[in-house]
Amino acid sequence: MRRIPKSEKGENTWKSLFESAQRIFLQKGYHKASVLAISKAAMVSPATFYQYFSSKDEIFEIILETFQNEFFNLLSSIIHSESTIEEKTKTLINRVFDTFWNFRYEYKVFREAEFIDKGLCLNFHTKIKHILQKSSEISPISQNRDPLFWFLFGPLFYIAGYWILWNDAEVPQKTRETLLDFYLNGLSSTTYVFDERVFSTLNDLSLNDENSLNKGEQSKKRLLDSAEALFGEKGFFETTVHEICRNSKLSAGAFYLYFSSKYELLSQLIHKTSKELRYVLKKYSERFSDRRDLEIASLKGFLEFFKHHSNMYGVVRESEFIDSKITLTYYESLKKPYINVLDLAKEKKQIRGYDSDILSMILMGIGHLLGQSLLILSDFSTSHQGLQDEDIDIYLRVLADLMMNGIAKRSNEKTN
After folding, report:
1. Percent of the chain residues topping a pLDDT of 90
2. What tens digit of pLDDT does each residue of 290-331 get?
3. Angle, helix 85-102 to helix 145-160, in steps of 10 degrees
4. Which of the residues in the chain have pLDDT under 50?
5. pTM
6. What is the distance between the alpha carbons of residues 265 and 285, in angstroms, rounded to a whole number?
7. Which domains, and CATH codes, for the chain?
8. Given this model, what pLDDT does residue 248 score?
9. Distance CA 361, CA 414 (A)
């Protein structure tokens, strides 16, 4: 039960503990934060901490509650306004980015809580979709709420993470303006009819032949595969080197022959995932010459790859809270070649002339939230249980239309 301070001194102590907890959670993450560290940062004893909060979890939950209330109030005020679709979208972009920056301590805590608690994440996403439905301009755009949610909030969440959490900077004005243009007008420079093959699944995409690996390479792969399974099941912090070795039937000596620590193994595991994902995306996209087909085929390949490596999608997500440099390296390895192909598509007049660096983050953000919804939360959500390939294709078709054409024209068509 929360202890409410009754004096000015008590209020100041409560506030000091709360702000210290925000900083500690931001710096260390949930798992490494402790009551002792929070108390020391607030310059009080742990005994004083327990006069106001029953545990680390309680103060964590209060921070989450504060952030969610602020976010939902913000979103509702925008959706319920009498503004045009263009004005609402511009306000949404600016106020979400500004709120995430001003509440960046709470935002970091919330991002980690989303990973720890699937129920909290699913409820957060569901409430956003319900609020979107209340807009007379936005809700008619798509009767299927999920693709619209991925289209609008995938870039917002990803770009906020990139700038605010990983680079400790506000989202640049040019990025905001480019995102607004993309939301309203979409990717395609002309009306486009997709090649139906973009929705098809490729088979037999074997990444490497184990028989071609030497004994040392096989041992290293066994350790990486063991870590992938255990990190996905238990999380990085709850998995020990001993368990990784036991699961791979190799000794600790073998482990330290290839990795200096569990952190280095994580880094190499994510590097391996990046390399394999890029290989699969290349196979899915090399059948097409138009970037618009390539974008949707790549989303299909992305989903297919992580369907078979579902643990790794969670591991990549968790690495954000372990070492943001690892996460940044992973996404940069995907972004750099992406920029080159987007530049080429602009030269061919296939897509609009957006800044390719910014556009790559927008499109990666859509894929990131799509993956989180269908690969991590689908097993947890009763509405998505038993999701079949044909269901995914329906989602992709709606999402593809939004990505190519934006929401301004479609909103006007629906409301006229």
Report:
1. 47
2. 999 999 999 999 888 888 887 887 788 788 778 778 888 888
3. 40
4. 1, 380-385, 415-416
5. 0.81
6. 30
7. 1-54 (1.10.10.60), 196-406 (1.10.357.10)
8. 95
9. 29
The two three-digit tokens of residue 257, written as one number: 């022959």
R_g (Cα) of the chain, nearest Å: 23
What is the per-residue pLDDT across 94-133, written as a single tens digit (0 to 9) for each? Answer: 999 999 998 888 888 888 777 777 888 888 999 999 888 8
How many Cβ atoms are within 10 Å of 283's Cβ, its own excluded?
15
SS3 per-residue string spanning the chain = CCCCCCCHHHHHHHHHHHHHHHHHHHHHHHHHCCHHHHHHHCCCCHHHHHHHCCCHHHHHHHHHHHHHHHHHHHHHHHHCCCCCHHHHHHHHHHHHHHHHHHCHHHHHHHHHHHHHCHHHHHHHHHHHHHHHHCCCCCHHHCCCHHHHHHHHHHHHHHHHHHHHHCCCCCCCHHHHHHHHHHHHHCCECCCCCCCHHHHCCCCCCCCCCHHHCCHHHHHHHHHHHHHHHHHHHHCCCCCCHHHHHHHHCCCHHHHHHHCCCHHHHHHHHHHHHHHHHHHHHHHHHCCCCCHHHHHHHHHHHHHHHHHCCHHHHHHHHHHHHHCHHHHHHHHHHHHHHHHHHHHHHHHCCCECCCCHHHHHHHHHHHHHHHHHHHHHCCCCCCCCCCCCHHHHHHHHHHHHHHHHHCCHHHHHHHHC
Given a contact cutoff of 8 angstroms between Cβ atoms, the answer to whether 97 and 160 are in contact is: yes
